[in-house]
Amino acid sequence: MFSKLKRSALGAQVPHEKKTAGLATVAMPCPERIVLPMQQHIGAPCTPAVKKGDTVCVGTVVGTAGGFISAAIHSGVSGTVEAIETVQMPNGRSVPAVAIRADGQQTPDPACVPPVVTDQKSLIAAAQACGLVGLGGAGFPTAVKFSPKDLSAIDTLIINGAECEPYITSDNREFLECSESVLGGIAAVKKCLGIKKVVIGIERNKPEAIDLMFSLVKNDPDYSVMPMKSRYPQGAEKVLIEKAVAREVPRGGLPADAGVIVMNVTTVSTLGKFLTTGMPLTKKRLTVDGDAIGEPKNVEVIIGTPISEVLDFCGVKDDVTKILMGGPMMGTAVSNPATPVLKQNNAILAFGPTMSHLPKPGPCIRCGSCINACPMGLSPVEIAGAFQRRDAEMLDKLMTDLCIGCGTCTFVCPAKRPVTQTMNLAKGVLQKAKTGGKK
User: Fold this and answer.
1) How far is residue 288's CA from residue 178's CA, in Å, rounded to a whole number?
2) Which residues of the chain have pLDDT under 50?
């Protein structure tokens, strides 16, 4: 049943809300102080590489990767390490962090020089040196993507430019403002990994980006630009793969098992910039929007800048009741505005009382809306029942682990039930059963 689904026809029609799409990126001034948590990626946390009182430059390594599935962290300011402290992340986890007092000089680290990249090994080393992770929100270390079990089986590189969540336009601006680095990063990956075909997927609500990329690659038969229907969640990795190459990632597998590597457009563009400049990942473009923002903007921000300063830069109003890192569908609520901007942030949204009000959930009316909309072909109603019974065997049969947490089921539910939250809890029950209680 699962393999026969046409997931591109599923999902939800979410509000467009892309009013910053035509706004060029503005650079935010250097903050006086940044805080760099040692966990800004999927995988093992970093270990602080500096101590209180150390002098750092822009690009200096301040956190060394904790293993292969990890990513180094670099300072985005020059200045002095003020403290090694503990911060609480939006998910509630407490992690070590390096706090740096900026000197305002923005002196680059002399060790930051463009790498020489000629093959898979040097490409992996470059991604590691850059501290590169998936910048579309997931934060998966890019070096791991470049290390599939069977490189010869990879025939397609898919560039994810769908950006299907409301409000967010930072990837769209990457296409329009940094097309040279986008293509430079793609070319390096294609050459070093020996990939034959490149598919650039962009939702149709970004016509300028589609036209620009088509004009740049139209004479190269190895490249194609794929305009996609504007429907959430077209940018979900498994949905995008099915749309682009008509293949399915096997249950429990990775995109490489379907013969593809998927990279977010800003991720591959950042790689292109690193190969040219040698400056690692130290800053990020964010879309700042929401009804509590006076001047919505696309802003280039140094990673580690407090969210409160970003909001102030965009004219935040006094009636903020909800702040999100990311979009309204998959973003994370932020309780403390002092929380720093992280590598994988692509938006900060701020809402007032009207937009932040959550309707009271009613009883399930068994309408099947969540089933009809789920891009992975799951049955949230049945999964909820199995979860209530703590029936791990049934949760496994219902393939609960395939849930991508996109929020579509909650969005379409007429009873406004917290379906996505229940799905996440159900995944936890299944994982605990499979691992014997060990994570």
Assistant:
1) 19
2) 1-8
